From TrEMBL:
The chain crosses the membrane at residues 37-57, 106-130, 228-251. SUPFAM superfamilies: cAMP-binding domain-like, Voltage-gated potassium channels. PROSITE patterns: CNMP_BINDING_3. Residues 336-404 form the Cyclic nucleotide-binding domain. The lineage of its organism: Eukaryota, Viridiplantae, Streptophyta, Embryophyta, Tracheophyta. Belongs to the cyclic nucleotide-gated cation channel (TC 1.A.1.5) family. GO terms for molecular function: voltage-gated potassium channel activity. It is a multi-pass membrane protein. It comes from the Eukaryota. InterPro entries: cNMP-bd_dom, cNMP-bd_dom_sf, Ion_trans_dom, K_chnl_volt-dep_EAG/ELK/ERG, RmlC-like_jellyroll. GO terms for cellular component: membrane. Gene3D superfamilies: 1.10.287.70, Helix hairpin bin, Jelly Rolls. This is Voltage dependent potassium channel. It comes from Parasponia andersonii (Sponia andersonii). Keywords: Ion channel, Ion transport, Ligand-gated ion channel, Membrane, Transmembrane, Transmembrane helix, Transport.
Amino acid sequence: MLLQFRLAYVAPESRVVGAGELVDHPKKIARNYLRGYFLIDFFVVLPVPQIIILLVLPDHLGSSGANYAKNLLRAAILAQYIPRLYRFLPMLAGQSPSGFIFESAWANFIINLLTFMLSSHVVGSLWYLFGLQRVNQCLRNACHSSDPELCDFIDCGHGSDDFSSARQNWTSNPNATACLTQDGFSYGIYMNAVNLTTERSVITRYIFSLFWGFQQISTLAGNQTPSYFVWEVIFTMAIIGLGLLLFALLIGNMQNFLQALGKRRLDMSLRRRDVEQWMSHRRLPEDLRRRVRHAERYNWAATRGVNEETLLENLPEDLQRDVRRHLFKFIKKVRIFALMDDPIIDAICEKLKQTTYIKGSKVLYYGGLVEKMTFVVRGKMVTVGENGINDTLSEGDVCGEELLTWCLEHSSINKDLKKIRIPGKRLISNRMVECLTNVEAFSLRAADLEEVTSLYSRLLRNPRVQGAIRYESRYWRSIAAMRIQVAWRYRRKRLSRADTS
């Protein structure tokens, strides 16, 4: 109840459009709770059973009014349980007026398990209580058939420890003694409860009653045969109905929980089966099939079957930008982009696509088109130039960076001060880039890179950015080294000819 005075709620009148307005003002929250469920909650938490036990029962013990006092106690408990269930059932369903309470599968599993235990506790407690009532009824029948004055000995008195002849007659009464035997009274499903009343340990009585509740709810009272007592038959029918309800609701939710744990695995199995059927239909050779299976497994391990682009499209623009900055923060490690302003970085991050390569995949090859820039996140690549020089690319490195310079050089400005592409050949690769291990990377397509360069051409033409591109790029450094070597050999050859002449 104290939590309800600080728990925000969604205003009902604001649900007409959208998700509604969340009210978090303390006074409005308190006023809404006082007008709502406060009286019900206050009545539920009142210690009515404790008051009856401490004040009402002691005054009636040892008299005929004890039976009425116990009936009053049962009525008070039942009167409090009905509103308690009214407040508890929405939580069991996992919903409240402000939305879902238990959104995770683990929370649903725990609340369903606790509900099953609570139901077993209630059924077991009622079974023990009704069993005592049947024993009480048998003893009353025995005392009325013998001597009505003996009925005073059924209920415990206030320190009544006399051993009068009347008490001795009652303890030796054959009708009363038969009430504690199996054939002395038609107990039906309460026979074990009668035997349980002789146990002095409260823990033993409670644990066995709880076990009985678990057993009957789980088996739908299939192993019980009630007597002809009407209320006993109704109680057995209630156990069967409660068991069916719990199996339909709780066990169904547990099944959903277990299915949620294996949902990704099931999706992966279905995806793998579709791929196998497609490869069989297209009659792919075994080598290609092996590579496709490897690529599918690695791609699933990297993405967990989640399409990040679809997930980000449903988020607000500023949140998309912040998430992309977090995902692509490795870009700042690349000195080419460390010198760029945030608008350029955001534009590049918006166009990046997640890509996975398996061991042996060729990202670039001799004579092929350079259609993308690839940023290595995890794994290793090797780049082999025309002169046969090898270089290793690892986390934070970029391949295909020559595409950025090429997009800046092969462009012009029209009369509207807009950047246009000059028709011509596309960039041809003069090196091969191959994956040494499985590689996770992000790629930037040529068309997206052209769009970024068209928007930020002046910033990208900054000499510092151009110098970083030339200096940090392994591609440009290898070209520079090769040209220096060619110039040095040419000069050495000229000097050799001059000395010979």
